[in-house]
Amino acid sequence: MMMKKLFAGLLFLFALNAVAEEELLEPDKAFAFEAEVKDGAIQARWDIADNYYMYRDKIRFEVDNPDIKLGEPELPEGKVKDDEFFGKVETFRGSVEVSVPIESGSGPFELTAHSQGCADAGVCYPPHRQTVNLEATEPAGSQNGQAAGDKRSIQSLNEDLGLNQGDDEVLAPDEAFVFSTERVDANTLRMNLQIAPDHYVYRDKFEFSVKQGDARVGEVQLPEGKSKDDEFFGRIQVFEDEVSIDIPLQRSSKEAGEVELGIVYQGCAEKLGICYPPIRKSETFNLPATESIADDTAAGEADAPATAAADAASPGSGGSGESADEAPQSEQDTIAASLETGGILVILTFFGLGLLLAFTPCVFPMIPILSSIIIGQGDRITTGRAFTMSTVYVLAMALTYTVAGVIAGMLGENLQAAFQNPWILGSFATIFVLLSLSMFGFYELQMPAALQGKLSEVSNRQKGGSLTGVAVMGFLSALIVGPCVAAPLAGALIYIGQTGDAVLGGMALFALSLGMGLPLIAIGTSAGKLLPRAGGWMDAVKAIFGVMLLAVAIWMLERIIPDSVALWLWAALLIISGIYMKALEPLPADTSGWHRLWKGLGIIVLVYGILLVIGASAGANDKFRPLHGVFAGAGGGGSSQQQSLQFENIKTVEDFENKLAQAKAAGKPVMLDFYADWCIYCKDYEKYVFTDQRVIERLDNFVLLKADVTDNDDKDKALLRKFGLVAPPAILFFGPDGEERRGRRLVGAMGADGFHDHLNMMSF
To answer: Where does the secretion signal sit in this chain (predicted)?
Structure first.
C-alpha cells in the first residue's frame, strides 16, 4: 500500500495524473500568505485552507536587502504527524503566525518566505516561495551607518549615543542627497542630485533599470568625477555638489506608454566619516510616442541594470584591444540579429540548427526514453502507431521548449533550471527505475500479485498506452532532461528579450525544437518497424532498453550526487549487465555465432565496469577515463592530481563588480564562467577544457571567476539577468579596462581545441 501511495505522489509531482476528484488549489490559495513589519519584527501569517497542512521545518525567510539582518524565526509548536514522506514531523493547520526579528538595518526590502505543504488527498506540493514588499524603519535615536565595507568611525558611534558636540549632525539621506528627475525627450530621462557640503556620491555605485514598461535602459554615459583615495576601495571617482545623468531608453514600442525607472546610488558624509546604505528610488514617467525604436544589440543585457562599470569602456579609456567598430559579434547575437529579417528562411535555418543539436548530451537521453515507450507496447505496436506516438512525444517536447523559451526570453526566468533540484530529479529518476524494472519483468518476483497488476497497469499507461501519457512524457523530458543552453537557443531568447516579439521568437524556438525532434521521430518509427515479434528476442530487446532507462536515471542523478558515487553506480550497472549477458558462463560447443557475439559484448561491458570500480576506488571522477591519473605517480614520481584552472567563486552582482574592479586596477583581463551541477556542458568544460594544458597556459594572466548558479536562487537569477543570460553554460571575457568583449562571449558547448583557438583570437 505504501508503494502505491508513493508512486501516486511521484506522478502528481510531475503532473502525470489527478489524484483527487476535486481540483487541487493553487499553492497561493491553499497557503495564503501575508506579512507586515511591526514593533521591529516581521509578522508573517499563513491562512491554510481546509484539508491542507504545512510542514513546520520547511519554513524559512530571506530578504533581498543586504543591509537588513534577520534573527531566528519564532515558530509556534506544531502538531506531530506520522508523515508517509518525511516520517514524524510537526505540521500546521488552519493558520500559523511567525515572528521574525529584524536585528539591524532599515529601508525597503522584498521578503521571500519558503514553505512546503500537502493536501489530505495524499498530494504534496513542491517547495513554494511567496514574496511581499515591506519596509523596515530604524528604531528612534539610532543611526545606521553601515555601507559597503561597513565604513563607520568613532564619530558616528558618538552620534548614536548622542555624545557629539557642535553642529556635526548626520543628515537624513534625502537631505544629504536631494533627488529629482525629469524627462528630456521620448527616449531619454535625466536624474539630478544636489549633494550637501562635505558629502559625496560614489560614481561606480549607480544602477539604473526599468522595473515596468516596454523599454530597457541603454548604455549610460556618466560624467567624469573627482578622484579620491578611499581607504576601502582605493583610488575611486566621486561626485560632489551636484551631478546630472542622462539615462537613454531602448523602447520596444513606438506607442506612448508608461515606464517605472529604478535608480540606486550610494554616498558618504566625509566630515563625519560615515557612509549611507545604498539608496533606492523609483519614478514613473509617461513617455510620448516615438518615431523609431532604438536598436542597441551590442548592449544586449535585457532587463539588466545599467551600471557604471560599463562606462569604463567609453571612448578614450584604452586597453580594450578591439574598437567598437572592429569588435566581432558573438554567435548567439548573430543568430538573434538574423531573426530581425524574419521570413520563412529564418524558420528553416532554426530547423536546421535543431537538427545539429539533435544528438547533443542534453537531447540524446530522450532516445531511450522514447524507444522504451515504443518497446513497452510489445507485439501490439505497428509502424503507424509508432510514428503517431513518436510525433506526439516530439510535439509535446517542442511545445514545452517553445513556451519555456518564450517565458525565459520575456521574464528572464528559466523554467528548466527550476526543475533541476534533488527532489524532482530524484523522483523522476525513481520513475525511470520503476519503468525499467517492469521491462525486466521483476514486479511479479518482488511484489504481491494485486499490487503488481495495479502498478503494471499504471506503468503501461505512462509508457504509451495512451497518447496523453506519451505527451506527458514529452513534456517532462523537455523540462527535466535537457536544461542546458546552446547558441541557437540563446540567440532566440536574446531576440525575444530585446524586442518583446514572442510570436517570431516562439516560431523560431518551435522550429528549433522540431529539428531536434525529427531524428527522434525517425528512431521511434524505426523501432516500431523493426521491433521483433513476441518471443526470446523480444525479452532481450526489452531488457536492453531497461538497462538504458537505468542509465538515464544515473545520468540524471549525476547532477545532484558526488562524482565518485555516480562512478560506483555506473560500475554496478555495467558489471550486473555483463553478468546477465553471461560473460562468466561457459558456452556449449554448439553455440551459435550470435550467442558468442553476445557473450563477447558482455565481457567488454564487465571489464569496463571493473575498470570503473578501480577508478572509483582510486579517486577518479570521469566515467570515460576511469584510469586517468590513477597510475600517473607510478615510476615517474608524478602527481596523480590533474592540473586544472583555479577559479575564484562569486555569488552576487556585488561580488563580481568588486572582483572586476580589483582586476581593472591590476590591469588584468577577466574570464567569468557560469556553472551549474545540473549543466552537462558545464561539466564537460570542467573535465576536458579547463584541464587542457594549452588553455591553462593561455589564461595564465587572467583573473578567473566562477558563478555557480546551481541553486537558481534570487542571487543567481540577478547575476544571470545582469548579463542577459537565462542558464549556463556561458563564458564571458572582460578586458583590462573592465569592459566585456561581448563578441567573444561563449554560450553552449565547445571542445578544448575550439576553446584554445577562441582564446587566440582575443588581443589581450
So the answer is: 1-20
